[in-house]
Amino acid sequence: MQGERSVLPVGAAPQADSSTVKDHDGAAFSARLAGLPTGRLGQGLAVLVDALDGLVRELQLTPAEFRQVLDYLTEVGHAADARRQEWVLLADTLGLSMLVEDLNSPRPAGCTPNTVAGPFYRADAPLRDNGGSISLDGKGVPLQVRGRVLSLDGMALPGASVEVWQADGQGKYENQEPDLQPENNLRGRLRTDGQGRFAFRSVMPGGYDLPSDGPVGRLMTRLGLCLARPAHIHFRVSAEGHERLTTHIFDRADPAIGRDAIFGVKPELLADFRAAPLDGGVTGRALDLDLVLCPLRQG
Ligand code: BEZ
Ligand code: FE
Predict the structure, then answer these.
(1) Do 155 and 38 fall within a single domain?
(2) Distance 120 CA to ligand 2 centre (A)
(3) How much distance in Å is there from the Cα of 122 to the middle of ligand 2?
């Protein structure tokens, strides 16, 4: 063809091989990789192509539909930047992030399950006094949290680091609205006391919706799926000789408890944020919880 560069030596006949002579099938890509030192990358791509091949065949995807898929993925890419990770949000809402968590951190029964940390975690949260407040603006329904960090055998873990972060009563994290909330509002790091106990004063977190203004939100809305996350508090606990725990504790009474947009709710993570008289004569809420860590395992 004119203008097209030939890759064949002059006079050479094209060499047919198994991936060029017959209709494309799912194994053709794997066949090309056979014998190449592609390692886990090649293994992953072969499985992915095989699954996509099945999808195209099962749905008998038309070229127009295929183009729509590619356009959608392009949109997701354009919506992702350093402040907003639309790809992570897509993986979260498809249930893939929790699947990766579940597969990679199976814990023995009795340990608190691991979940994703989510986009609002900050590694630089300030150390707070055990028993002190993490609410810097005092806005919201007062909440008293008391917890224990335990090992699987029930032993208390003194000196454990407990990082906590949560949304305010309107369902917003401080790093989502830096002009409206004080820096590091509703987050902090505590150390457990000699009996493995920690406590802090806070406010009731509100449930919230994942952003609906990007391609992921639009997709979920178009499908009629819910973007809601039930009210929760995030914890990340580190203690010597134990696997780090990253989890959420959810308000059992939240109306969205059965339809978390990212599939993070597990029965062990439900808790009662019960009405209670608090110090100073105010009525607020109280939450008591145990966070149970898994001892480090070999391998
Ligand atoms: C969160 O709980 O903060 C969260 C987790 C995953 C996606 C969006 C938010
Ligand atoms: Fe959250």
Answers:
(1) no
(2) 7
(3) 12
